[in-house]
Amino acid sequence: MKLSLAILSIAATASAFTSINTPARTVSRSVATSDVFAPMSVRASGSQLEAAKQTPHGGTLVDLILKSDEEKAAAVAATTKALQLSPRQLCDVELLMNGAFSPLDGFMDEKTYQHVVDNVELPDSGLIFGLPVVFDTDDEDLQPGDKVLLKDGDRDIATIEFSDKFLPNKAYECLKCYGTSEIEHPGSLMVATERGKYYMGGKITGLNLPVRDFPCKTPAEVRETLPDDVDVVAFQCRNPVHRAHYELFTRALDDPLVGENGVVLVHPTCGPTQADDIPGVVRYKTYEVLKEETKNDRTRWEYLPYSMHMAGPREAIQHMMIRKNFGCTHFIIGRDMAGSKSSVTGEDYYGAYDAQDFAKEKGPELGVMPVPSLNLVYTDEEGYVTADEAKEKGLSEKKLSGTKFRKMLRGGEDIPEWFAFKSVVKVLRENN
Q: How far apart, in whole angstroms, are the C-alpha atoms of residue 280 and residue 309?
């Protein structure tokens, strides 16, 4: 019944919009090679990002978190209601509080929401913004002007002063943001079945960051750890890192687009993703063991409490913008990044290079250089090389599908080391 209602809700027409407002360069390398991080690139001449720490999106890194107990107590005392945050809402509130969503200082009102949906940018400033950030609710009693305490269990997280309340056209939102309003798309399914009937805009005042099983540093904290005179290349992932991923992000430092002595920030999302993805806590454990196993000064690891939409090209822009706020100058764009398949037909919703193409188009304006990921394959003769090199040399490729890997994992079979790290496999089996 809920799914039926959700489908009806997402099929709402544009006339359903009403609002209540208050005034208001590649090298062959085998798995065992030890010189993975040898600097090989030459800084591109004339790069605007040369020898400069990345400027936050909009020019200023937002920090909404109150610093004193007195300020926090006063903010709580001014509220009249309390709400429990969903896991997705908790991620969004944290990223608003800590400045990852700079220049936003709260959830989008209707004007901002609609402009981002339509134009992939914020109104007035024209700053690029990939996806809307919205507070959803089914509560009929919540009204503009209400000051509400937002909680995670017993922990006070933030307060919000609502500015407006509106009925979104969810079908239109999904069509524009995900490229489809079909319920088989995980993003559309989320909007239809998880989000509430109404969206509400409002300014956030931060009280306390959530307590998580995995530590999530703020953009300001991460920036303090990064060098300010070299390029910082971000690598986003939502799954355990296997050998091909590792080769991919280490070799990205050799790309001609990346300056000499650049570093890579491996920055996995550990928030809600697709229903069949490995839980965030388990993913975090795999990253921690791999971080120790492959420790190197040119690789940094941090974690992001972000809720995935599987929105393909537009989510790639969202990730680039967030990593810009964390101090990154470059961003690795993989094949079919943030892509998804129909849960009915199994067909891909996006082309393999749609996200890369969109990132190349928007990157200069955003101020983040997209670095296309290499299409790497493993060969008996030379280890990991590009697919083109393997074809040109007639090398013997070895393949292992994700489905076959998961079957071998469950069955206790030996996983080839060219495919996965033993330490990662061990964690996955212990938490299966």
A: 15
